[in-house]
Amino acid sequence: MVGIIMGSLSDRKVMQLAADALTELGVSYEMEIVSAHRTPERMLEYGASARSRGLKVIIAGAGGAAHLPGMVASLTSLPVIGVPVLSSNSIDGWDSVLSILQMPAGVPVATVALDGARNAGILAAQIIGASDPELAKRLDAFKESLKEKVAVMNEELKNQLGN
């Protein structure tokens, strides 16, 4: 099971992409709003109880100062994947990217691209799939489907160019 958390409801559109990827790969998840700045006690409880509640990976999305992924990572030994979210108060997203990317030694947060929640969902599945053979098979099939999509696009390009 994967925990998907975000700082506010405005992050939902981006973070839904992680949920969609997990659904496609048959991985269960929970999704909640946990604000590092507005509900710090809730964030502390969420991070501290994550493993005992059965979570295997946490995906944390945040915009602006983007403290949620790092703070949650400081509370658990579970892998945390940070999703920098381009928010209305953001500095072109760089504040979020750097806030998540530049973690101190000992508190790693895997970081995906700005608004890259789909990749966060896939990465979470891959982390779990490292020890789950059935999920690994689904991931292998997913990767194979990417090759097929490129082959179809290549044929479409050739048709457009008249080759």
Automatic annotation (TrEMBL):
Keywords tagged on the record: Isomerase, Purine biosynthesis
Record-listed substrate binding positions: 8, 11, 38
Enzyme class: isomerase
Annotated EC: 5.4.99.18
Residues in PurE domain copies: 1-150
SUPFAM superfamilies linked to this entry: N5-CAIR mutase (phosphoribosylaminoimidazole carboxylase, PurE)
Pathway assigned to this chain's UniProt record: Purine metabolism; IMP biosynthesis via de novo pathway; 5-amino-1-(5-phospho-D-ribosyl)imidazole-4-carboxylate from 5-amino-1-(5-phospho-D-ribosyl)imidazole (N5-CAIR route): step 2/2
Record's function text: Catalyzes the conversion of N5-carboxyaminoimidazole ribonucleotide (N5-CAIR) to 4-carboxy-5-aminoimidazole ribonucleotide (CAIR).
Protein's UniProt name: N5-carboxyaminoimidazole ribonucleotide mutase
Origin species: Dyadobacter beijingensis
